[in-house]
């Protein structure tokens, strides 16, 4: 049921305060700061002892893995890899019994992810699912896992699954990091912000009208570049995917540190650029990249953290200030803003946002 919303996509974007809360419900006790993921609790020690973690997924689910990779590296201090499932099964790379392979999927039915899971199981790795659909193939075939509990996602383009995946994966990282003394203060800070997350998301959703104004400008474009680094690299990839699917406009997410190695040739006054410059540990380098593209004549739309408008305005055509949240969760706020942007551009261009052309909700063929 769409309720008061015109489309499932809009409904699913706006229910994210509740869906992320449901991902944490009964698992994270904010008063005692204790965390229990029933689905993987028995395997936490095995995960901590593993030599590598590999995240394997497609599309939006692949982007959620990219969004949490740095946190796993910090919490676990061992190698973490993020794989596109189709490329993984093309290569069939070496997988060992002391690897942990995490399969992320909203539907739990994506053929490429499922094939990768079967390959890793054949190689005796511990296979963990992070899946929304209970009873789906990936949920059944993994050794153990965590359900997202985000509720059904009807719109073909994935929205609330992304934010619940980031939250579920963040909780797994916190569990894994419990054995690392140096990580404990950081863990407490993240739990505090997980507690606030539904309210933080409500603040982003309240920016809907501002985002609609930006969408009106973007809807006339033929191509949009999105730039970001750190956790915001995952966000620009996800934003570009949403714009392609919903707006049918060419959109490309580019690492802000990589732009000088070629993409800079595309940058000029006329180019539509969305630049994610949230306050994180990469902020000074992000600002330097922003200044470089401004030197080439670009005037991007800048998404930044509250308080940074004055500092970044000289480089921007417009600035959108997002609520402050721990760096580990920043992809949640920026991706929701980009989901709204893509949704509005799609509607302004009269596209069927719930059912983009040529796409299916679950891709059950290779
Ligand atoms: C489970 C119950 C939940 C109940 C709670 C009470 C289900 C689906 N969940 O939640 O209704 O309120 O206990 O303690 O019945 N799994 C996989 N692969 C996946 C996802 C999950 O193997 O991709 C397995 C888990 O290892 C676990 C089971 O499915 O054995 C349920 O997982 P999950 O719903 O995440 O567990 P709980 O949060 O404990
Ligand atoms: C993007 C989108 C797809 C899915 C991909 C994986 O909006 O919906 O890119 O993310 O098909 O699907 P799941 O997560 O079901 O494995």
TrEMBL record:
Pathway: Nucleotide-sugar biosynthesis; UDP-N-acetyl-alpha-D-glucosamine biosynthesis; alpha-D-glucosamine 6-phosphate from D-fructose 6-phosphate: step 1/1. It is an enzyme of class 2 (transferase). Keywords: Aminotransferase, Glutamine amidotransferase, Repeat, Transferase. The keyword tRNA processing does not apply. Its EC number is 2.6.1.16. GO terms for biological process: amino sugar biosynthetic process; fructose 6-phosphate metabolic process; protein N-linked glycosylation; UDP-N-acetylglucosamine metabolic process. Signal peptide: none annotated. Residues 43-182, 214-356 form the SIS domain. The keyword Zinc does not apply. It catalyses: D-fructose 6-phosphate + L-glutamine = D-glucosamine 6-phosphate + L-glutamate. GO terms for molecular function: carbohydrate derivative binding; glutamine-fructose-6-phosphate transaminase (isomerizing) activity. This is glutamine--fructose-6-phosphate transaminase (isomerizing). The chain holds residues 317 to 682 of 682 of the full protein.
